[in-house]
Amino acid sequence: MRNRSFQSLTLEHRSHSIVATICNFHKDAYQVILAGVKGGPKEKRLAAQFIPKFFNSFPELADAAINAQLDLCEDEDVSIRRQAIKELPRFATGENIFRVADILTQLLQTDDTAEFNQVNVALISIFKMDAKGTLGGLFSQILQGEDIVRERAIKFLSTKLKTLPEDIMTKEVEEYVFAETKKVLEDVTGEEFVLLMRVASGLRVLQTVNGRQQLVELVVEQADLDQALNPADPDAVDRLLQCTRQALPLFSKNVHSTRFVTYFCEHVLPNLSTLTSPVAELDIQLEVLKLMAEMSPYCGDMEKLEANLTILFTKLLEYMPLPPEEVENGENSASEEPKLQFSYVECLLFSFHQLGKKLPDFLLDKVDGERLKDFKIRLQYFARGLQVYIRQLRVALQGKTGDALKTEENKIKVVALKITNNINILIKDLFHNPPSFKSTVTLSWKPVQKTEAVAAKRLSSEEMGSGAATKKQITPLPRRDARQIYNPPSGKYSSSIGNFNYEQRGGFRGGRGRGFGARGNRSRGRIY
């Protein structure tokens, strides 16, 4: 047998059952099968089937068998590669599981769709045999492999882990995933950070208050909150935005946003006008203010509450103009009227209202008389302009039914009405003596809850009134990937309502090199 060529063996024994019988009892025959990877297409296809089939019968040839199968996985013939990849899970026994997982992870770099899908199927197959061993191979390539392999391995984890049942993703396995994920997060791009946070936040072991707090701490470390923000650095601004977006879903009454809110007050708001946007079409100032508003309800005890409230109050005043100097018979003079930037004011007022609950005497005890008087004049002027817009919007929407409200123009008007109603309610609270912080509003861009959504029907005057219950939404609004700015010209009604910018939350726009973390530019020492 030893002197026979693989080709002659296949010619003499065309029946696979005969070849199988020979291999079962003859080590020499198995070695000839291994040598078949150097033969022609027919020999390679046969080898791709029989090498794994009798792998366990010859443990002393394990390394040679795996290497031979790996040669077939790299063959020029895609059909041979697919066959070899399909059979790879048969080698995943005992200590070989890590090696097979490592090989399959490297094979994720293929550009052939069918081959790529075969690799995915094979990885899932060995996951069911040994999840922790498979993860070892995946994370080994994520930490040390080529960029394309690392990228696809991370995407594999972010999409596939959540589909695996609890008997595979045990507590021990999930804890291993979290420990390895923390190692990877020491050096990631923005896109990788988002995907890895998706992996970690989906782990059942972290669906507790303590688990969510651990996730927040991970984000805090990535956000670099111990360092001052350089507003002129778009990468630094982008990192802060991205980290804040990842932290937002984790905040609750038990998991506080205090560190982020404090950082925004101390480092972001004072530099708001000089922030460099990482994306040309993004209104960076509004985006920052929206994030601040969304975080503010979950802020815990703040060490420098009065100082930070003062910063927030000062910024609010910037967006609440004084009335024109010349006012006669209730009509504005010919001089240019100030702009009423409703979207910005909604965010700032909401944040101030939320933090003000923690120091309800701030306006009376911490703001001097002249400044408080100035603030009330601004509030009154803004409130007057607000009432005009609310009336105009109510008239424009009166009698509109479900389908009519779905046009782009009317969607804009509905959102505008939500913004102005929210501001009106918050201003009324601040006009109380002493100021009140009891009212509740839903931020205009927040998605409508099912219990709040009103079926398509005629809008009643109650629903469009400024005093309507804030939880009773007018109509289902666009999801939060349709972010909008309401900024009509002041003093006059514009039939187009205003200009709206649309932007999507999520990953970075365009590619950037490594450097998302706090360790500057670095190389991972890839093995090529």
Automatic annotation (TrEMBL):
<keyword id="KW-0539">Nucleus</keyword>
<comment type="similarity">
    <text>Belongs to the API5 family.</text>
</comment>
<keyword id="KW-0053">Apoptosis</keyword>
<keyword id="KW-0677">Repeat</keyword>
<dbReference type="GO" id="GO:0003723">
    <property type="term" value="F:RNA binding"/>
</dbReference>
<dbReference type="InterPro" id="IPR016024">
    <property type="entry name" value="ARM-type_fold"/>
</dbReference>
<feature type="compositionally biased region" description="Gly residues">
    <location>
        <begin position="507"/>
        <end position="518"/>
    </location>
</feature>
<feature type="region of interest" description="Disordered">
    <location>
        <begin position="504"/>
        <end position="528"/>
    </location>
</feature>
<dbReference type="InterPro" id="IPR008383">
    <property type="entry name" value="API5"/>
</dbReference>
<dbReference type="GO" id="GO:0043066">
    <property type="term" value="P:negative regulation of apoptotic process"/>
</dbReference>
<dbReference type="Pfam" id="PF05918">
    <property type="entry name" value="API5"/>
</dbReference>
<dbReference type="GO" id="GO:0005634">
    <property type="term" value="C:nucleus"/>
</dbReference>
<dbReference type="GO" id="GO:0006915">
    <property type="term" value="P:apoptotic process"/>
</dbReference>
<protein>
    <recommendedName>
        <fullName>Apoptosis inhibitor 5</fullName>
    </recommendedName>
</protein>
